[in-house]
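Data deposition worksheet. Section B asks for the primary sequence of the deposited chain exactly as it was used as input, without tags or linkers unless they were present during the calculation. Section C holds the resulting structure in token form. Section D is free text for depositor observations; keep each observation to a single sentence. Incomplete worksheets are returned to the depositor.
Section A, Depositor: J.P.
Section B:
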Amino acid sequence: MNALQNAARTPQGVTVNGFVLAPIIDKCEGCDRVREFEEEKFCSSYPAPDRKWAEGRCNFATHIRVDAKAAAKVNPLKASKRSVKKR
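Section C:
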């Protein structure tokens, strides 16, 4: 099912269910949530993709994988207690 099936072109831009959609940015290319409407590409999850990428990575991005271990922060106090416990 196409997420943009109720889309319509208006003077404000492309609207879906009352939301005005902004076209995707280059960082969105390859995402599974990108849909095409009248030869333009839009995000099916968020109306303004440029704002999702403004402060880092878009949390809806399906084309970017994050290593959970690299992203997890380790509390040094807990880590030292665990190492003592293993002895």
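Section D:
Residues 8-86 form one domain.
Residues 22 and 51 are 10 Å apart (CA to CA).
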